[in-house]
Each structure stands twice: as C-alpha cells, then as structure tokens.
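The methods section describes the discrete structure representation at length, but only in general terms. An entry of this sort, consisting of the sequence and the corresponding backbone structure tokens, reads as follows:
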Amino acid sequence: MASKEQGARAGGAVRSGKRSRRKTGRKPSSRNRLGLWTRLPDDDTWSDWVSHLDRRRQPVPLNELVRSGSAFPLLWALPDGYQQTDRPRLLKQLTKLAGKQHSAPGAIAGRLDDWLDTAPGRVPDSLFALECLGWAHGLPRLAATLTPDLWRTLFTQLNAIVRDTAALNLSDIPLPYQILRGELPLTLAYLFPEFGTSRELQRLAARTLSKGVVELTDGAGMLHADNIEWSRPLLACWTRAALISDVAGCSCFNEAARNQYQWMIQQTLRLTRSDGTQVFSDSFAGDWCPDLFAAALTQSSDPEDREIAHCILPGKLGKGGARKRRKLPSPFVYSEWAETCVMRTKWSRKSPQFALTFDRGTLTMELSNAGQVLWSGDTTPQVRIAGKEHKVQSDWIEICTFSDEDVDYLELEADYGHQWRVQRQMLLARTGTFFFMADAVLGPRSEQIEYDLTLSLADEVTFERDEPTWDGLLGADRPLATVLPLALPEWQKISGRGRLATDGQTLRLSQAAAARRLYAPVFFDLSPKRLLEKRTWRPLTVAEQLEIQPPDVAVGYRVQSGRSQWMIYRALADRANRSLLGQNIFHEFVFAKFDTDGLVQELIEIE
C-alpha cells in the first residue's frame, strides 16, 4: 500500500480535515442560505431572477392596494407645472407599466437610456421625484425586457439617488425630499424584499417620513402657510407610503407621525371647497382628486373624518353610506404656528366658508358662499400717510381669536412703520349668515390717511351696484352676497369719504380721512333669503361724558337687511365708558343683533 506521502507525489489529494474548493467557471450564487439575494443577479443567474419575479405573488402592485378608483396613485395631486413640461407622457407611461395595464415594457425601455444620462444632473424637483418612483414601480416588469446591464444600472441609479438625498433639506424642498428620501426607499424595499438591503431602506424611509410629517405640521395636522400649496401632493405621498406599509407589515410612521398624518386628513378636508378643489388654488395640485381622498380616508381611524367627508365632499364620497349624525368637531380651526385659519358656518358642502393665511406679511383670504368662490387672493391693505406709501414692516400677529356657536372671530395686527399699524378683524356668523371684515389704521398723530383694499373676484363673479347707493350685489348665475361699505355714506351723492367700485375682476374699497385713526369695515350678507330684500346702514353717534366723539376715537353702525338688524361698535382710541343707542359700552369691540323686541343681544364682545 502506498504511503500518504507517495500518494501525494502521485498527484492524489491529501485530506487534512478541510475541504479544498475546486476552481470552476461557475460564479458563486447571488443568494445566501436564507434565500436573500446578497447582490444584484449577474448574467449567469439572470434568467433565474426573471423567472422568480414572474412567479412571485407578493408584493402586490401599488395600484392594487387601492380599493377603488381608476387613477394610478402616482397621478394623485400632481404638482404644479406638470402640464407645462415635455415629460408628462413619460410619467403616464411609467404608471401604466407599473400598474400592469396594457402597456408594452418595450415601448418605454427606449426612453431609459436618455433618462439615465440626464438623471445625475437633474434638479431634484417634484416631477423628477415622481419619475424616480415610476421607474421603481416599473422595475419588476422591466426585468423581462431590459438587458441585465441596463436593469442593474437603473436599480443602482435609483439607490444612488436615495443616498444623494442626504444633502437635501426638508424645509427647502419638502415634497421632493419626502418622495426621494422617504417614499422611494420604502418602495424599493417593498418591491424587492429579496435583497438584504431592504431593512436598511425601510428604516431610512420611516425616519424620513416621520420627520416630514412631524416637522411640517403644527401638532394638529395643519401644514404651515408656506407649504399649503403642497397639502395634497404631500397627502398623496404619505398615503401611498401608508398603503405600502400596511401590506409590507412595517410602519412608515412613528407614533407621533401617524397621529399627525391622521389629523392632516381632517385638515385637508377643512381646506376643501364645495367642488372638491383646494382653497386658494387655481392650479393642478389643488384639483379635485376623489381617489386620493378615498384612499386617505381608509387610513383614518377617526369615524368623524368619514362623516365630515360625507357632508362636504362632492360626488360619491359626499353620498356614501348612512350618516350616523354624530356630533362633529367645530368647523373652525386656527393655527398660530401654521399662520392659517378656516371658518365655516357648518359642515355642509355649500355653507359659507372663509379661509386665511398670513405668512410673510401677506394676508391671503378667500370667501365662498353657496358653493361658489366670491373672491380669493392677496388682501393686504395699502396705506398712504401724508402722501407716502407705508408697507408692512412685520409679520401679522394674533391679537384675539374666539369661536362659539354664534361666531368665529380672528383679529390680527401688523406694523406699518413710523408708529403706524393696521389691525384686521374677521368675523363669520354661524347664526345670521354673514361675514364682517374691518381694518383699523392706527397712528401716533393726525395725518392725511389714504386706505385701499382690493378683493380679486372669482372669474364667474360680478359686482352690480344699486346705482344710487354705494352697496352692491355679488353674483354669478345667481345672487351670492351683498356688500355694504359701512364707513361710506349710503348714498353716492354724499361724496368725499371714499368709494366702492370694480376694475375688471377687482373690487376696490377706498377711504380717506385727515385723522389719527381710520376704520374701514365691510359687511357681506350671505343669507340667500335676504339677498334681494331691502338693505340699509347708518353711522351711529358715539358719546363720552355727554360729548359726541369723532370717528377717529370710536365708531358705531347700524345695519339692516330685510328684517334682520345688527349693531357694531369699535373703539379706536383707548377704551372708555361710552354710550351708543342708549347702551353703555366699555369694550373695544361689540357686535350685536337686535331681536324681534328690539333688544340688543351681543354676539361677541372684545375687551
């Protein structure tokens, strides 16, 4: 018998307890013993990878996670500018591909080379972010069409984009940041759980999405006025992420973020007009998107949200199911942090609605009635003192806010420089159905004050003045509101104090006075029963210690529309015990109504 040494010399292998690996032309497997792919499939394992993707039943495509609706979720609340680019066709093709509609993968594969060439230099805007999502959702189907190298290049590029977003800032580009660093990694992890990197991508997505929801909202789900234009696109991003997380068995939100996301659903409902569009919006992002709202409501654990949706949304969402008529939260919402306020007389689709944002020194307002926007846009008052224009020098800050079953009220103040300031009062009456707005220009000395307020009327709305008087009627195909400029005399023949007139689609109120203070109130009657009835108003005499006070100290008005009558008092100088219509008043502001017996009933008193 030959010895071990001889056997070795003869070319036999000597076993020493360790197995030697034979060198072959076959590369190691791309999968480990747990079945996870440790790296991208190479050319040798590519056919196995394509077969695997074709056979697997999970994950379910995104569009199949939505219970109803025909629009692919990537097309929810598309950002402004989408229609003005040459790239919408690409996004639509990608959504069809991802949704397994009748779209041949080969038809879009030809565009991939160009996209990959330009992607590294693209500005990370919202459209680019959505394209990344579209390519990610299309990856499973594209595996059978693209070459292995091109598919791997696309997959690698999308992961590189996720990594590169670490240099981006949430506050600068909230929507692209949330999509590229939150929704995109979550999508890649969801679609390709086979890769060992999926858990890391899930954790990154959860951190990013949670941070976005918490930092972009006020603690009650309201976005800051700066980001209100992104309300629906952000809701779409977070809703898609929530749908994926539910199926994937992971959470894309921490507890605080999940709570804020659900609050945001209700706040988005508050910011909705009767036709389903978003307040302040006349662009693509604010269009009515019923599929988005339907999907978001499935994520809400609060039955009040669905009840509110039944009350205020158009179409099927406004008619679905029997209503339980539960007591709903107040329609009024005000957020000092978000610099946003919404008033509504009740949860009804055609009820009067007022919305306001007051960021960056600008008062953006919108008033609707009977399902029609009356006016919307910048209402920051223009003030000239002694012939010199004074502009806002500060943020608008809250002086007072109040809400009960009768009225919603908010008062703001801004510095106009050189010790001049303006206070804006806004009051929506839930009982009585009217809106009152007034500006008080307050200064340190008597000067020539010139005041202008402009309201941008909606396209369909016209203003028709009852020609002998300064008041008029706002309407479209029907009367919608009457406008009473209370500081002007009722009759136009009494001139010299100002005017109310239109210039195109702009309604302008102008007033002037040589005084230390000026008050410019406007009364909008929104009651359909009173719109064609007789109306009138009168200034009231205000006395203090038996002496009549000038209008830069205190003012009072009596307003009548049909059988309804109201009394308004505003102190412009320091508060004092003054009399008005036999009433002793020590408050700064009083708004009251007269009952059928002629007695005064206060709706609101501000000390």
